[in-house]
Amino acid sequence: MNTFTITFLDSDVSLKARLLNEKAPSTSAAFMRLLGNPIYTTGRHAMYTGKEISIQLPVDVCKDTSLHDPAKENLTCFPQPGDILFTFMPEYAWGGIPTPIYDFGLFYGKDARTFFPAGWIPGNLFARVVEEDLVELEEIGKVIHMKGQQKIMISQNLK
Asked: Kindly report the CA angle at 129 between 42 and 65, in degrees rounded to 5?
């Protein structure tokens, strides 16, 4: 299965994304294994990276998988609209937070970059929102930027 769906439950918006299996095989496979059950979480507008919806994957779902300290694949610091990056931060690495961070970065606009107060942190570019959903992605990004976080479900496509 090469696709999955990101549903913004508060806005009734669904986006289809395609895995980049050939460029990020380990990340893509590990992420799809997580989707044996849908993942429910929250998306917030990122603070430092520009036009990004930052989605934290649940620690209990990720901690015993290969997404915990993943292979570095298809790294980028300059994501394009529709790009989905996975970035892992170990315990205490980000502001002294005692839990790991499993970040699913959904980029919705141009001029994004993965530059943080700690410097450049590249992410694994492992999926992209399909072309026909990019306008809707940009619109939901603007909604989150102006109105705040949204409940999100990430699930496998059944077809």
From this structure: 55
d(CA 63, CA 22): 24
The count of residues in the chain is 159
Q: Are 128 and 139 in contact (CB under 8 A)?
A: no
| Alpha-carbon span 48 to 90, nearest angstrom | 19
Structure tokens at 122: 């590249």
Q: How far is CA 9 from the centre of its chain?
A: 16
The pLDDT tens digits for 112-157 are: 999 887 789 999 999 999 999 999 999 999 999 999 999 999 999 8
Using the CB atoms, write b or e for 71-85: b if 16+ within 10 Å.
eebbebeebebbbbb
Neighbouring CB atoms inside 10 A of 137's CB total 24
Tokens coding 140: 């939901």
Average pLDDT, the chain: 93
CA dihedral sign, ordered 99, 85, 82, 35: negative
Tell me, what's the pLDDT at 157?
81
What's the pTM? 0.94
**What is the SS3 assignment for 89-108?**
ECCCCCCCCCCCEEEEEEEC
